Amino acid sequence: MSTPADSAEAPDSPVATGDTAPPVGPPPATSDAPSNQPAGDSGEPPHGDAHGEEQKEPAASSIAFTATLIVLVGLALFGRRLFAGLFTDDGVRTWATMFVGVTVQALPFLVLGVLLSAALTAFVPASFFAKALPKHPALAVPVASASGVILPGCECASVPVSAALMARGVTPAAAIAFLLSAPAINPVVLASTAVAFPGQPKVVIARAVTSLGVSMLIGWLWLLTGKGGSWLRMPKSRHAEGTGRLEVFRSSMLHDFLHAGGFLVVGAAAAATLNVVVPREWLDTVASNLLLSVVVLGLLAVLLAICSEADAFVAASLTQFSLTARLAFMVVGPIVDVKLIALQAGTFGPKFAVRFAPATFLVAILASLVVGWWLL
């Protein structure tokens, strides 16, 4: 039987209010221990294994970087001399000449682009972009697109940079516009295009105008859909918090060079093979149809996944195709290819990638046709 005192206290008790009664006995003494205990008191750093892997990864990356660089330079300097006895057929000689020529021409621009991209990632804080962009999302999109002209970055680096922008409060539409424009219209890319197409400044202008237009259109389309929040998974930084700027610069440079250098070699080999192995009649048939040639070279850019600092030299070697078709190759490559689709899916989620890649490819093809008809 309850006492009057008990009855008076009943309304304040959990049982009287309908809440679940607390467990009998004293509360667990260790419930808050993990949150109050310093990380160093656990006997092992919370990320000890990861830190060990990070220590091993730079050494492996340095070895791979050095080996890749030696192979590329050796192939460029001594390739034809070393394999002169094997290159007896005219077709094989032509293949070797084109392969080495494209690689040697593109490699300096690739290295410069990787260095500038790593410097951007390491030394330019993401908060700078958040302060520089307009608050209104529709106005922030063209400003973010235009900033790609002065802020170089390869397509591999643009994904983590745009992810950092989103994490710092930049509207996703503006970050996506920067993701598309930075690797396509930065000074290194435009300079390499001018070198690859000497005496044809209209090609450089057409590439800049088309890529800038595509980045703005995709940014505005992202705003118009109104469903971007459910499609986009907010990314995490590739570098651990507190990592020094020099370490971020070094690791970004190694990562981007190893990835881009490998794809450059594959792209140069594919372009040389396309010109030598594929029958001339087939190429002429495809090249004679404007729409078909634009779509085919666009798909080829997706498959080859060549770095934007080097793709102009591959495009210039495809002399069977019109300038409009080669423009499509240079516009599609920096914004949608197999490595970018995988990188975007891992960073922003598969829902984003399966919608973003087809939409970007379609807009890039249509824009290349329009600008090619207008300028080329």
TrEMBL record:
Q: Which Pfam families match?
A: ArsP_1
Q: Where is this gene product found?
A: Cell membrane
InterPro entries from the entry?
DUF318, UPF0718
Q: Where does the sequence pass through the membrane?
A: 59-78, 99-124, 173-197, 204-224, 257-278, 290-306, 352-375
Q: How is this protein situated with respect to the membrane?
A: Multi-pass membrane protein
Write out the similarity annotation. Answer: Belongs to the UPF0718 family.
| Record-given protein name | Permease
Q: Which GO terms describe its cellular component?
A: plasma membrane
Query: Which intervals carry biased composition (Basic and acidic residues)?
Result: 44-57
Question: What keywords does the record list, in alphabetical order?
Answer: Cell membrane, Membrane, Transmembrane, Transmembrane helix
Instruction: Work out whether the entry's keyword set contains Cell membrane.
Output: yes
Region feature (Disordered): 1-58
Q: Just give the chief location class.
A: membrane
